[in-house]
Specification:
It is built from eleven helices and 15 strands. It has about 400 residues and is α/β, with parallel strands linked by helices. It has two domains: about 80 residues, 2-Layer Sandwich (Alpha-Beta Plaits), CATH 3.30.70; about 250 residues, 3-Layer(aba) Sandwich (Rossmann fold), CATH 3.40.50.300. Helix 6 packs parallel to helix 7.
């Protein structure tokens, strides 16, 4: 379907240096048997947050090199001789109490946990009845991810594609409201498989169809993943002779166990990252991109929502910041596939259960163009390697 990592020439150390851009802050590379790599990086003792970001991004870039099975990055944080410490320093923390130890920043995963992030050995190339799977993700909530997922599905259905939508946000399912199907009750076929609810040409499943809308979902991770896989595998999305052209998965926000399990255990064709222009959302997008790089899922590109508001006089007001989507796309080496302004049609469509993409106005045109860009990039995965995520300071 697509290649996990590009084959590259040269020694493994040189390929890693090339992937990192051979920066001055790379002190050394140690390689052990089996492709286990240790990176030694210069850290900034005056900016621990930036140093930690550098470490995470270096690990993600090195992990994407063919021949690397695991990566550890070590930070050194020695101030150069003769350098002047910063004039403004945070208060020095008090020493720990007797018998206590201070916990350092930089939480790390065990070898077992890291291995769970790699593509599973039992992962199949395709689920019967589903041709391709597109994950719409954001590492932050409230950026319009579900709006993009629902309207993309509607746009593809409008183009005549057999389209499905799996609402995998167990704790906050919004697809039933956005599709106008809150009163729907899925049935099962003769084989006991769930029959997706159809609306606007979209076949959809959501935990919102199967639970009391007023009852809080207090499930833990394993139960959440069990519910997602059951809605995916035990549903009549299509048949081998008449498969679904595309299944869009609206993922929960964040990069927790549910998102990791989706990337690892489901044969995802590609992912789409959604963000707003503001900096607080962009930092989370970088974490989401790093997660997909770790799990070898191609990322098609970035979609920026709430890009601007246009007043009746035609003046644009960038309420959420300006240029953030383009900035993060360039930093990650990914295309910016679309910018969606704040439009009443989009908001109203989600509230009334008629996605804006099924109409004929400016909002529908935007989602139509976005669906074409996504379709072209999905098709390109069959003939060339997907865009490779890069991380830069």
């Amino acid at each position: 379907m697509f290649r996990r990592k590009q084959r590259q020439s040269g020694s493994l150390e040189q390929r890693i240096r090339d992937a990192l851009g051979n920066p001055g802050w790379l002190q050394g590379i140690r390689i052990r048997d089996g492709g286990v790599v240790t990176l030694v990086l210069d850290g900034d003792p005056d900016d621990l947050a930036a140093s930690e970001t550098r470490r995470i991004e270096a690990e993600a870039r090195a992990m994407n090199v063919d021949g690397v099975s695991d990566v550890r990055a070590m930070l050194t944080a020695e101030r150069a001789p003769g350098s002047t410490p910063p004039t403004s320093q945070p208060p020095h923390p008090s020493p720990p109490k007797p018998g206590h130890r201070r916990v350092s920043k930089g939480a790390r995963l065990s070898d077992e946990a890291l291995s769970q992030g790699q593509p599973g050995e039992n992962q199949t190339d395709r689920i019967p009845g589903i041709s391709r799977i597109l994950v719409v993700a954001s590492a932050k909530g409230g950026v319009g991810k579900s709006t993009v997922a629902v309207n993309l599905a509607a746009a593809f259905a409008k183009l005549g594609l057999k389209t499905g939508l799996l609402d995998a946000d167990i704790y906050g399912p919004s697809a039933p409201t956005m599709l106008g199907t809150t009163d729907a009750s899925p049935e099962t076929d003769a084989n006991g498989k769930l029959i997706p609810v159809e609306a606007h040409g979209i076949r959809s499943l959501s935990i919102g169809y199967l639970s009391d809308p007023d009852a809080p979902m207090i499930w833990r991770g394993p139960i959440v993943m069990s519910a997602i896989t059951q809605m995916l595998n035990d549903a009549a999305w299509g048949t081998p002779d008449d498969p679904l052209d595309l299944l869009i998965i609206d993922t929960p926000p964040g990069t927790g166990d549910a998102q990791l399990a989706i990337a690892q255990k489901i044969p995802v064709t590609a992912a789409l990252l959604v963000t707003t222009p503001q900096e607080v959302a962009l930092s989370d997008v970088r974490r989401g991109a790093a997660m997909f790089a770790k799990t070898a899922v191609p990322v098609l590109g970035i979609v920026e929502t709430m890009s601007w508001f246009e007043d009746p006089a035609g003046n644009r007001h960038h309420l959420m910041g300006e240029g953030g989507g383009q900035k993060i796309a360039e930093a990650l080496g990914l295309p910016l596939l679309g910018q969606l302004p704040i439009l009443n049609d989009i908001r109203e469509g989600g509230d009334t259960g008629r996605p804006a993409a099924i109409g004929d106005g400016p909002a529908a045109a935007l989602f139509h163009e976005l669906s074409k860009s996504v379709a072209l990039n999905l098709d390109s995965l069959q003939t060339k390697a997907p865009p490779k995520i890069i991380f830069e300071d």
